[in-house]
Specification:
This protein has helices at about 15-30, 80-95, 100-105, 120-125, 130-135, 145-160, 180-195, and strands at about 45-50, 60-65, 70-80, 170-175, 200, 205. The protein is of the alpha/beta class. The radius of gyration is 25 Å and the shape is elongated.
Amino acid sequence: MAKLKMKKKSTSTDMTAMCDVAFLLLTFFILTATAKVPEALPVDTPSSTVLTKLPDSDLAIITIGKGKDGISKVFFDIKGRELRKQTLTGMGAKLGVQFSDDDKEKFALMDDFGVPLGNLSQIIQMKAADRTKAPQPGIPTDSLNNQLKDWLLVSRRAAIDLSGGKNELQIAIKGDAKEDYPQIKKIMDILQDQKINSFNLVTGMRGKDF
């Protein structure tokens, strides 16, 4: 009995459509991605196995670490564009420093900073790349000129005002693992003076110990 011969079909697949989709996705991600700006005060955070994501808004981050000169410095960051603008407005009114509308718009897009309020406008007007290279002495925290306390107070009020009293500003401390404890305690004392007894500690991830 004669055997039926099956017609052989080509096993090749036309990948043209797949390549088009891949290039479209690649183009989309390249155009929409933003480059990570180097931190103004890089710190080596302590390790932890606990993973808790910090919010993207209504958050203040206090960074403590040693600069290139080996001196401990404090930097401050606020998450949320409108919150940043209102905080800057409040700080200017509180300490008698004038900021233009352009200053406020650019400040809303900045990351952390570490200068006295009187020098902040110069930092704001710099490009992001130049800002990270510029020497920043840190935010004053001494008893006669405790601007960190003012930043915390004004930003907390701004968060409450913008949310209509619904949201409170969350606080996070990002300290270098090799930072001296008295420097960290000083920041905690400033928080406790404002009745802030609940805050986050920023750490780096490490594998679990088995």
